[in-house]
């Protein structure tokens, strides 16, 4: 995807139901990111933050927190088409999240987004559900699969 997402109309956005919305660029997961996430969440389990101990596990290295991978969806989604007239978009929740495969330190991941549903809640407010798969470069199994619900608000309505 590009640095500047393409602009689409609200009608084009709503017509994307059942269609791929796009894929993000690859992101490399670093130990510094994992450590910072551990500090923010107070989750310092050794499998994430102790490379020497983690090397002795079946993973062979530290792995990203599943919630770190999940939280990166927001950054990935910024690369999707921008909908004209949007005042703000917020997370509303998830129908389903599955952490399918661990993301080892140094791995590259990217998100693939498909619009599953768009529902008008009230004039100027849409609820969206996107199916998201986070791919790990060079692996058949994804890092995670989720059904992500968002709310999008439009001005002038």
Tell me the CATH topology. Answer: Thiol Ester Dehydrase, Chain A
Q: Helical region count? A: 6
Rg, Cα atoms, Å: 17 Å
**Could you name the CATH class?**
Alpha Beta
CATH superfamily: Hotdog Thioesterase
The geometry reads as: elongated
Q: How much helical structure, as a percent, in the residues?
A: 10-25%
Distance between the termini: 31 Å
Fold and architecture overview:
- This protein is an alpha+beta fold.
- It has a single domain (7-154), classed as Thiol Ester Dehydrase, Chain A (Roll).
- Helices cover 22% and strands 39% of the residues.
- The chain has 6 helices and 8 strands, in the order βαββαααααβββββ.
- The protein has helices at residues 10-14, 31-41, 46-49, 51-54, 66-71, 73-77; strands at residues 7-8, 20-23, 27-28, 82-83, 86-99, 108-122, 125-136, 144-154.
- Strands 2, 3, 5, 6, 7 and 8 form a 6-stranded antiparallel beta sheet that branches. Strands 1-4 form a two-stranded parallel ribbon.
- It is elongated and about 55 Å long.
- The model has no long low-confidence stretch (mean pLDDT 95).
Descriptive key words:
single chain, alpha+beta, 6 helices, Thiol Ester Dehydrase, Chain A, 8 strands, six-stranded antiparallel β-sheet, 157 residues, two-stranded parallel sheet
Give the arrangement of secondary structure elements.
Blueprint: E1 7-8, H1 10-14, E2 20-23, E3 27-28, H2 31-41, H3 46-49, H4 51-54, H5 66-71, H6 73-77, E4 82-83, E5 86-99, E6 108-122, E7 125-136, E8 144-154
Parallel strand pairs: 1-4
Antiparallel strand pairs: 2-6, 3-6, 5-8, 6-7, 7-8
């Amino acid at each position: 995807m590009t640095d500047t997402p393409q602009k689409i109309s609200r009608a084009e956005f709503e017509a994307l139901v059942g269609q791929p919305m796009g894929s993000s660029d690859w992101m490399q997961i670093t130990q510094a990111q994992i450590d910072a996430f551990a500090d923010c969440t107070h989750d310092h389990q050794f499998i994430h933050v102790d490379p020497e101990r983690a090397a002795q596990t079946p993973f062979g290295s530290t792995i990203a927190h599943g919630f770190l991978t999940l939280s990166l969806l927001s950054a990935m989604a910024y690369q999707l088409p921008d909908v004209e007239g949007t005042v703000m978009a917020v997370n509303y929740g998830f129908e389903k999240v599955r952490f399918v495969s661990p993301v080892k330190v140094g791995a590259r991941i990217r998100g693939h987004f498909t619009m599953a549903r768009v529902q008008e809640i009230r004039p100027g407010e849409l609820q969206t559900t996107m199916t998201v798969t986070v791919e790990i470069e060079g692996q058949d199994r994804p890092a995670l699969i989720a059904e992500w619900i968002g709310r999008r608000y439009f001005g002038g309505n």
